[in-house]
């Protein structure tokens, strides 16, 4: 399979990481990262980041987590033999362009049979010109889905809000007002889809106090990041991330006050 798709399994769910882009990240986005730390973890400021989405297939049910910009993912879905019309739900982590712009084109829903789920707080945050978007409001992108846009209040790490069988929502505010991460559970196995908890894995896993300039509330983002990483490390729960380098999925363990990320595969 090409380097644009990574396959994983969580219980009876097939999980596919579909990447739209992999390339050098911009170290200027890092907040409060002192020079020594940067030199230690990303010498020369070099790190790789991605734009990724996750797709879960379980029998006939197909659920998508974010849409990216809606470019490469459609080719990757074709490679997997999955049609847009088969997607029954699109779960959105937050309303930045690189996460939901693939929902719509020319006023039409690109996932015509899907419900679109996002946190009420995110929908109501009133993002009129999403960063990374084509100058269209979030409301305009969601409009073709009408009543199939469904909102919820995310739960916590100890009690995820159940949305669909085996899929729950957890609040991870800070990156945006209503940023949500999603827990997939099947046959005793788990996977947490962490959205934009981390942009620069090479430095933010070992130094999780570093937030980025895209974080609306860098302090709250730091708290969410710390809580999720501690929880995932303690439980051995794999993480997937929308801006992690390929394969964008792996496990963490606590190390020197931060975390060591071991990519899957
Ligand atoms: Zn993003």
What is shown here, in short?
With 265 residues, the protein is of the alpha+beta class. The protein is built from seven helices and 16 strands.
Give an overview of the whole structure:
The chain has 265 residues and is of the alpha+beta class. The protein has a single domain (5-263), classed as Ribonuclease Z/Hydroxyacylglutathione hydrolase-like (Metallo-beta-lactamase, Chain A). Helices cover 19% and strands 33% of the residues. The strands form 3 sheets. It has a 7-stranded mixed β-sheet with strand order 1-2-3-4-5-8-9. The chain has a 7-stranded mixed β-sheet with strand order 10-11-12-13-14-15-16. The longest helix has 18 residues, at 218-235.
Mass-distribution shape = globular
For the residues shown, what is the average pLDDT?
A: 95
Q: Measured on Cα atoms, how large is the radius of gyration?
A: 17 Å
The unreliable regions are none
Overall tally of domains:
1
| Fraction of helical residues | 10-25%
**Number of helix segments?**
7
First-last Cα distance: 13 Å
CATH homologous superfamily, by name? Ribonuclease Z/Hydroxyacylglutathione hydrolase-like
Main beta sheet strand tally, sense and closure: 7 strands, mixed
How does the helix and strand content classify structurally?
A: alpha+beta
Shape-level CATH architecture: 4-Layer Sandwich
Order of helices and strands: EEHEEHEHEEEHHEEEEEHHEEE
Kindly report the spatial arrangement of strands forming the biggest sheet. 1-2-3-4-5-8-9
- As a percent range, the share of strand residues is 25-35%
Look up the CATH topology. Answer: Metallo-beta-lactamase, Chain A
How many beta-strand runs? Answer: 16
CATH class designation: Alpha Beta
Bound small molecules, deduplicated? zinc ion
